[in-house]
Design brief:
- With 337 residues, this protein is an alpha/beta fold.
- Helices cover 49% and strands 16% of the residues.
- It is built from 12 helices and 8 strands.
- About 13% of the residues have low confidence.
């Protein structure tokens, strides 16, 4: 089975490894081996965890986790003289902010196109106790990354259309997924347990993060569910990982597992087939246990899609753009009824 690719990146510390180990399932031997390898490293840039697995009642998947950090070594990889090309704004940034900016600028450059194309999920980490100026810069960079990933998706789909164009007058069948990256985008906030963070600052961060295109998860949440009954903290992180549509999975529904390694076109067919039964007028839910499990899975996947669509809409710059996106989404769902 092919491995899915997840990149987790943030300031230099060991928290990223802890988050990964708490979210994915590792044997004690695997966990000890990871710790031994980490203990020999000065920083985690370029560290790879190839043993991560996701196991649910519906599917299993193998995930290759790439770890990176905002550190001086990343700055060297950008390939430019940062001191010579530094703006007045850059010179006023803290060292931590400069490292963040340099990493993000490199990531959205043409040089890292292949890296972006290979990813199924992108996870950032940050310290909630960081200065608000740093957090605002982080959100600005996350928005730029969201725009670049969506741009990559549009360009790739345009190329596919050109390759498949037979010169006919077929109606445009693009869906909202053709205009946005369908990978998982998360931003994990944490802080030292001995430090008290005010609810006002948490609320302010949540409001700011809403426009980034990334889902913000406070890993130090004092509750397991928010006011809407949705999971929070590490439970939400794990839920996002488990409900994401990974490129390569092994279905556990049938006795004979089959590997799914889909292209973008195949993914759209799968999404359509999962949503159609939910909207069908012929309600046969509950005929047998297998149908009930299938309906639960479909509902979870649909909810995840709606949340992703909400995040995408929140990052759009103007009202007209958001309205067009919403209309396209409604039209797509109506086609499936």
């Amino acid at each position: 089975m092919n491995k899915n690719q997840l990149l987790i990146v943030g300031p230099r510390n060991r928290n990223k490894i802890s988050f990964v180990k708490n979210c994915f399932e590792f044997t004690q031997d695997q966990s000890d081996r990871i710790d031994e390898q980490v203990d020999t490293l000065v920083d985690l840039s370029g560290f790879i965890i190839d043993e991560a697995e996701i196991n649910t009642k519906y599917y299993t998947a193998k995930v290759s986790i790439w770890v990176d950090e905002f550190c001086p070594d990343n700055d060297d990889t950008v390939g430019e003289d940062k001191t010579a090309g530094e703006t007045t704004h850059d010179s006023q940034l803290s060292e931590e902010s400069k490292l963040l900016k340099n990493w993000c600028d490199a990531f959205i450059s043409d040089e890292y196109q292949e890296v972006r194309d290979a990813l199924d999920a992108l996870v950032f980490t940050f310290n909630i106790d960081a200065p608000l100026e740093y957090i605002e810069l982080l959100i600005e960079k996350l928005s730029e990354i969201t725009d670049r990933l969506d741009e990559d998706t549009c360009n790739a789909n345009d190329e596919d259309v050109e390759d498949d164009d037979d010169g006919g007058d077929d109606e445009n069948t693009n869906t909202f997924n053709d205009f946005q990256w369908n990978g998982l985008k998360l931003i994990l906030g944490y802080h030292d347990k001995d430090i008290s963070i005010s609810e006002d600052k948490i609320s302010q961060i949540e409001d700011l993060m809403f426009s980034s295109g990334f889902e913000f998860i406070n890993l130090n949440s004092k509750t397991t569910k928010n006011e809407f009954g949705e999971k929070s903290g590490m439970l939400r992180f794990r839920e996002c990982i488990e409900t994401h549509e990974w490129s390569s999975i092994n279905s556990t529904k049938s006795k004979k597992s089959t590997t799914s390694n889909t292209t973008n076109t195949e993914k759209k067919k799968i999404s359509t087939s999962m949503i159609k039964p939910l909207l069908a007028s012929d309600n046969r839910v509950g005929e047998n246990e297998e149908d009930e499990f299938k309906s639960v899975e479909e509902m979870e996947m649909l909810i995840s899609k709606i949340k992703n669509a909400k995040l995408s809409a929140s990052s759009m710059r103007n009202k007209e753009e958001r309205e067009k996106y919403a209309n396209d989404l409604v039209s797509e769902i109506m086609k499936l009824i």
